[in-house]
Design a protein that fits this description.
Keywords: Activator, DNA-binding, Transcription, Transcription regulation. Belongs to the LysR transcriptional regulatory family. The protein is an alpha/beta fold. 40% of the residues lie in helices and 22% in strands.
Length: 305
């Protein structure tokens, strides 16, 4: 027997993109920005969907929105289908123009200033018609965006175990201290020497922060976090001013007033390139191949020491 869409399904399919964006963003304005349409259009589409289904899908929560019980059930049942549809359309369009297309690419905060931008600049010169939508964030946020289909490719440190990953290199965590610090002259330190120190650290959701807490716990103490901030370069600037110490990857740019010291017992972290689409478009495949072939460019500068 032939299968056809019901009238109800045919009427709501065009509205699901607005629903999905609002469900993921938790905010109508942010959903409109993501879709590139006016806020009023998103609101109308959601209202039309609610009228077609006969149930409210969102409720107001502060300045944003949250899903109702019916909204949660609809989102759980449709989000995978929407990702598949988006993947199919992107692939078909890209196959029609293998030298063009869009790649949604993410990379970590620790590789922002030099290595990744230089790679992307060279890639753009070799493939000028491929457009890159870039996201820079911490590792867990990037991994979630890859899982949800919001990114096609992402460099992550360390890469998650549940995604297809190509290992590109490694990155070392080093103790950062001011030049005037008591440990600045040392070539290596043990973690148990840092029990009384004040740390400057990234938020708890960041892998670097988790690594700090894990290694300190193994050494028998909880690090005292005097300052918490998401920007790594600001952490280094605070360290250089003698406000604390930090466990971070080496900066890609010179930082005056700062010294890095190796820490005993801390292994290097893998740098991985994760792919989120099961059927990558030619543009995604091209960028993935380009980065993989030049993986030495992402090597930790301290590996030669």
């Amino acid at each position: 027997m032939d299968w056809f869409l019901s009238d109800e399904t045919a009427s709501v399919v065009p509205l699901l993109a607005a629903f999905d964006a609002a469900a993921r963003e938790g905010h109508i304005t942010h959903a409109a920005d993501r879709l590139g349409v006016p806020q009023s259009s998103v609101s109308r589409r959601i209202k039309s969907l609610e009228q077609a289904l006969g149930v409210p899908l969102f409720q107001q929560m502060g300045r944003g929105v949250t899903l109702t019980t019916a909204g949660h059930e609809l989102h759980q049942r449709t989000e995978a289908a929407i990702r598949e549809l988006d993947d199919a359309i992107t692939t078909v369009r890209s196959n029609a123009d293998p030298d063009g297309g869009v790649v949604r690419f993410g990379f970590p905060l620790t590789l922002g200033p030099v290595s990744v931008p230089s790679l992307l600049a060279e890639f753009h010169r070799s493939a000028p018609r491929i457009r890159l939508h870039l996201v820079q964030s911490h590792g867990e946020a990037l991994a979630q965006m890859v899982r949800e289909g919001r990114l096609d490719l992402a460099v992550m440190i360390p890469p998650p175990a549940d995604l297809p990953v190509t290992v590109l290199g490694s990155q070392r965590l080093l103790l950062h201290v001011a030049n005037t610090h008591r440990l600045a002259h040392r070539e290596r330190v043990d973690l148990d020497e840092l029990t009384d120190e004040h740390f400057i650290a990234s938020p708890r959701t960041y892998h670097v922060r988790k690594e700090l807490e894990r290694h300190c716990a193994d050494a028998g103490f909880d690090p005292y976090i005097a300052f918490e901030i998401s920007e790594f370069e600001t952490i280094r600037a605070l360290v250089a001013r003698g406000l604390g110490i930090a466990l971070l990857p080496r900066s890609e740019t010179a930082v005056s007033g700062l010294t890095t010291v190796r820490v005993t017992g801390i292994d290097d972290r893998a740098i991985g390139l994760a792919i989120g689409t099961r059927h990558p478009s030619p543009a995604v495949h091209r960028l993935r191949t380009y980065i993989t072939a030049r993986s030495a460019r992402l090597r930790d500068p301290g590996d030669d020491e």
